[in-house]
Design goal:
The complex is a heterodimer of chains A (375) and B (137). Chain A has 9 helices and 11 strands. In chain A, a hairpin with a 2-residue loop joins strand 6 and strand 7. Chain A is α/β, with parallel strands linked by helices and 375 residues long. In chain A, helix 6 packs antiparallel against helix 8 and helix 8 runs antiparallel to helix 9. The chains are: A alpha/beta (375), B mainly alpha (137).
Chain lengths: 375, 137
């Protein structure tokens, strides 16, 4: 058994204390007292793991001493075994009412006392183990709660991140996240050709830019003294005041900041892709508008040309018919000329009709382009 | 009786050197008592010697307390005597002391048990002396 198991025995008979010492000395650290008062004095400076109390004591009796012990919060869980010559149920009940855990009758066999000691040791060890487990559970609980709180901050940031539309907004959000973790630092975002460096001290401060430019070449996660740097393609996050005195918190911060920075990098990539797509779309729409306008001009020109052609043909026909009288042509000559002109007019009319089809096609193309533009 | 828990601190009789001879005392459960001292004969012997000197006197003190009307003191002394003799293996004396304590608590006549206690304590004292002398010779 462990020597660290401390027993306080109180009895006014030195023979009883000597017997207890003979039996318990090899198994425990025993201190004996001839009175309750002596024991109480000692309790001011030292606490045992087990009390062995005689009932009949000069001055304060064993029951009163037990009540005193059980009223003390620091001693309440220390087991009390009465060692008494009073072997009656009334006396045992008194001991129980006083808060005692066990009772042993004098004269006792050594094995009985040793057995009681072992039971008490087991009880105390269980209590200690339980107390340690409670302490561990409480510690674990506080860590889990803190971790949940930290994770909650991260989740809140990530949910906001999805809706963020610009690098500046994201940099401010990331800086706020760090502040909520009680951290001071610098955030740099790189979107296309635009680089923005932000800290609580301001935007694009030359010294901070130069430091970030240096540390962003140092790998994904880089630490020096109280600083921690998280590097991604489009974002660099530098913490200036890592709480090195709390390694567990430090570890959780590294994980959370790494996740946040990775999320930011992805969001910036998405924003970059969205902007490229928007620019391409604007280019296409602009080209479509140009084509539509050109088509419209072509149609107008074609209409104008067709009208001019029809007018010229009509004019030519009238001129030729009028000239027949002046030329003095025979009927056969007139008929020949009329037929020739008629054939020519018919061919011209067909050509003009084809022009109308072209105009319809142009009209349809123009409408299609307008439709595309409205998408 | 000696009030120190340390036997060597109050022994008025020098402890005799122990022999290999088995200690035997009339009306005393030596083996049982010795086991309470973890087989330490010197320790047990110390308290037996102490009893020779103070045991009969302790019995007389109970009579005096009764005679003086100190009823509670008489009960306390009888109880202590009972406890001491029980631990030392003196079964007969322990039994008488217990009966006397009960008689005192119940306000019953005690003269007979006081006589018995004193007489048996004297006898026990003599028997212990004889046994210790015999074992050490």
């Amino acid at each position: 058994m462990s020597q660290s198991f401390k027993v306080f025995a109180v009895d006014d008979d030195p023979v009883v204390l000597d017997v207890i010492a003979s039996i318990l000395d090899p198994h425990s650290e025993l201190q004996t007292f001839a009175s309750a008062e002596e024991c109480l004095d000692k309790l001011e400076s030292e606490k045992p793991d087990l009390f062995l109390l005689d009932v009949s004591l000069p001055g304060m009796d064993g029951y009163s001493l037990c009540e005193h012990i059980k009223a003390d919060a620091s001693l309440r869980n220390v087991p009390v075994t009465f060692v008494s010559g009073h072997d009656t149920i009334e006396e045992r009940l008194k001991g129980y009412d006083a808060g005692g855990e066990d009772f042993i009758v004098k004269p006792f066999a050594p094995e009985e006392l040793l057995r009681k000691l072992k039971v008490s040791q087991h009880l105390v060890l269980n209590q200690r183990s339980l107390a340690e487990q409670i302490a561990e559970a409480e510690q674990l609980s506080s860590i889990v709660m803190a971790s949940m709180d930290e994770t909650g901050i991260l989740l809140q940031f990530m949910s906001k991140l999805i809706a963020m539309e610009s690098a500046a907004e994201i940099a401010e959000g990331l800086l706020e996240l760090m502040q909520r973790y009680r951290l001071d630092g610098v955030v740099q975002t790189r979107l296309g050709h635009e680089t923005e460096t932000l800290s609580a001290a301001g935007k694009n401060l030359p010294l901070e830019i130069s430091i970030i430019d240096h540390v962003r070449q140092q790998g994904r996660i880089f630490e020096f003294r109280r600083r921690s740097v998280h590097n991604f393609e489009r974002v660099t996050l530098m913490v200036n005041n890592l709480p090195l005195d709390d390694p567990d918190y430090c570890g959780r911060l590294r994980d959370n900041l790494s996740v946040a920075a990775q999320g930011v990098d992805s969001r910036l990539k998405a924003i970059h892709a969205e902007e490229s797509s928007r620019r391409a779309q604007e280019g296409i729409l602009s080209a479509l508008e140009g084509i539509r306008a050109t088509m419209s001009e072509l149609r107008m020109t074609h209409q104008s040309n067709s009208t001019a052609c029809a007018d010229l043909i009509g004019e030519l026909q009238d001129t030729l018919l009028n000239s027949f009288y002046r030329l003095g042509l025979t009927d056969n000559q007139e008929r020949f000329l009329q037929n020739m002109i008629g054939d020519f007019m018919t061919q011209m009319a067909e050509l003009l009709n084809r022009g109308a089809t072209t105009e319809t096609t142009l009209q349809r193309l123009s409408e299609s382009l307008a439709h595309l533009r409205n998408y | 009786m000696c009030s120190s828990a340390n036997p060597s601190a109050c022994s008025s009789v020098p402890a005799e050197p122990l022999t290999n001879a088995k200690l035997a005392i009339k009306n005393v459960r030596v083996a049982e008592a010795l086991s309470r001292f973890a087989g330490d004969e010197a320790r047990y012997r110390h308290w037996l010697i102490e009893f020779i000197g103070h045991g009969p006197a302790a019995a007389s003190q109970i009579r005096m307390a009764v005679a003086n009307g100190s009823h509670d003191t008489a009960i306390r002394l009888a109880h202590a005597f009972k406890g001491r003799t029980g631990m030392l293996g003196m079964a007969e004396l322990h039994s008488i002391a217990r009966t006397l304590e009960m008689a005192l608590k119940n306000f019953e006549p005690t003269a007979f048990w006081l006589d018995e206690l004193e007489r048996t304590a004297e006898e026990m004292s003599r028997d212990i002396s004889a046994a210790l002398n015999e074992s050490s010779s």
